[in-house]
Amino acid sequence: TLAQKLAEITPGDSDKKVYFGNSGTEAIEAALKLARYATGRNRFIAFYRAFHGRTYGSLSLTASKPVQRKGFGSLLEGVTHVPYPYCYRCPDREVEGTCNPACLQVIEDVLFNSMLSPTEVAGIVFEPIQGEGGYVVPPKEFFIELKRISRKYGILLIADEVQSGMGRTGKMFAVEHFECEPDIIAIAKGIASGLPLGATVAPSQIMNWVHGSHASTFGGNPVSCVAALETIRLLEEGLIENAAAVGKFLIQRLWKLAERHPMIGDIRGLGLMIGVELVKDKKTKEKAVEWREAAIGSAFHKGLLLLGCGENTLRLMPPLIVNQQQAEVAVEILDEVFTEIESQRVSL
Question: In the CATH scheme, what is the code of domain 238-342?
Answer without folding.
Answer: 3.90.1150.10
